[in-house]
Amino acid sequence: MSRYLRNTWYPLTWSSNVERSLKRHTVIEEDIVVYRKVNGEVAALSDACPHRLAPLSIGRLIGDSIECGYHGMTFDCSGQCEKIPGQRRIPSNLQVRSYPVTENMGMVWIWMGDEEKADKSKVFDLKEFHDPKYSYVLGDALHVDANYLNLADNLCDPSHVAFVHQSTLSNKEHGEVPVHHERLEDRVVTWRWINDSPLIPVFKGLVDFGGNVDRWHYYHYFAPSVAMIDFGSAPTGTGAEQGNRDNCIQMFACHFITPIDERTCIQHWLCVKNIPSDPEKDAKLLAGLRMAFDEDKAVLQAIQKNEDKLVDFKRVRIAIDVSTVKMRQMLQEMIEEEQLESIPFTEVV
């Protein structure tokens, strides 16, 4: 079992995927059965009947309860057993774990740790998602055969864009542009400006500035599994870098990562933008972003194969790795602090 942070909100699945039916999901190596209750709220239980460990997801949904498909025991949405066919007395320990869940930004979020610490106000939120002056496009749930921290590295790293995404988000000439980084209390931020440059391919056709632009990329990574990339462009020389962005195109690419196990994760992504919804332009933008994230996926899966094969290989760090190192250090500190808090306190007299 890998070491994961538990007391945090993990993205589970798109809200649109949760219906009045039982579906199995895996988060940090735990199998969970998820469904929508009669009142529309989401319920999530451990996907194993405590009797013979039959997956509850192969059972039947009856009202807000699950009937086990093996021996018919019924569990309510809190995980408590309500019924045992042919037996009146229900053992007090016949229950399954229920998980706190909430919904925001089109996503179901699940709390994998101590239920008493589950604070819904701590779920990631981007205010522009709710702002009527912005619009958004929901992307995909991209299955990536790679460790989620390798994807996290990618989402802390503007420098790879010039080499991996020449057909979508950049070009090779920008590989020499310096990258800056900062660790804040709740995240690691990495950024760079590329001034007096053509529009990136995915922006072409969305807006016409009539010439070159000054463009920015700010990568915000919130450990363990949320990245928000603020990127945009404004006409060259109009002061965008100094904060004047009255005439610009700005997007927020949100990446919600579900760690499944050591070698698998799901990258849920959406894009919030300061331009109105337009079916034709939105379709073009989605196609470009899908191409870009597929480019990342190909590299990350190739890296994972080499990691599995070259287990004793000592990798070399270079200057552009500072943000990824800071991100992993932040996560490690969070895990260690959580483990210390879980140790029972014994007073010495």
UniProtKB/TrEMBL annotation:
Keywords: 2Fe-2S, Iron, Iron-sulfur, Metal-binding, Methyltransferase, Monooxygenase, Oxidoreductase, Transferase. InterPro entries: Cholesterol_7-desaturase, Rieske_2Fe-2S, Rieske_2Fe-2S_sf, VanA_C_cat. The keyword Metal-binding applies. One of its GO terms (biological process) is methylation. Residues 9-110 form the Rieske domain. The keyword Metal-binding applies. GO terms for molecular function: 2 iron, 2 sulfur cluster binding; metal ion binding; methyltransferase activity; monooxygenase activity. Pfam families: Rieske, VanA_C. This is Rieske 2Fe-2S domain-containing protein. It comes from Acinetobacter albensis. The lineage of its organism: Bacteria, Pseudomonadati, Pseudomonadota, Gammaproteobacteria, Moraxellales.
